[in-house]
Design a protein that fits this description.
Elements (H helix, E strand, L loop, with lengths): L17 H33 L10 H31 L5 H34 L5 H27 L3
Helix pairs in contact: 1-2, 1-3, 2-3, 3-4
């Protein structure tokens, strides 16, 4: 956009083709996915080992259910966050990169929501086993609010505040 009323050339955005924009967005998305993938894969790997410890058999039934739900959420989060790589591999060279970026972005968002759920249920399970105090749900809720604030609240506020209308 050029503002000629003040005699100043204020361009907004980038001068790039749709393909160049898709390439840039793809690179940015893959960097973001790498960060999330590392976290979810470490958490998921740890969760897979818990069932093979002697302590697992001593868990209350509800804690075993929370564990199973947590493992399933971790598996789903891992799948969603690896999905963009598979998508890119399967559609590479087919001239659909802008559409692939859109779908990969959606997969990544779903993966982040599932990662949030996995981390929440992991924290709930760990705190239930570590302590039997009544404050556990409040502490877990506070941490979830913290995640929501920094993963979604601040980005959405920034998007709203600084995006051109």
């Amino acid at each position: 956009m050029t503002d000629t009323s003040a005699g100043v050339d204020r361009r907004r955005g980038r001068d790039e083709t749709e393909e160049e924009r898709a390439d840039r967005k793809w690179g940015e998305l893959i960097q973001e996915v790498r960060v999330a993938q590392t976290g979810v894969q470490i958490l998921f790997g740890f969760l897979l080992t818990v069932v093979f410890t002697p302590r697992y058999a001593q868990l209350a039934d509800i804690d075993q259910v929370i564990y199973i739900v947590t493992v399933v959420l971790g598996a789903c989060a891992t799948g969603a966050l690896i999905g963009p790589v598979s998508l890119h591999r399967l559609v590479s060279g087919r001239q659909v990169k802008p559409q692939a970026v859109t779908w990969a972005s959606r997969m990544t968002f779903v993966g982040l929501v599932l990662l949030l759920a996995t981390m929440t249920s992991s924290l709930l399970l760990i705190l239930r086993v570590a302590t039997h105090d009544g404050f556990v749900p409040y502490l877990v809720s506070a941490v979830v609010l913290w995640y929501l604030l920094f993963w979604f609240g601040v980005p959405m506020w920034t998007r709203h505040r600084y995006s051109s209308r």
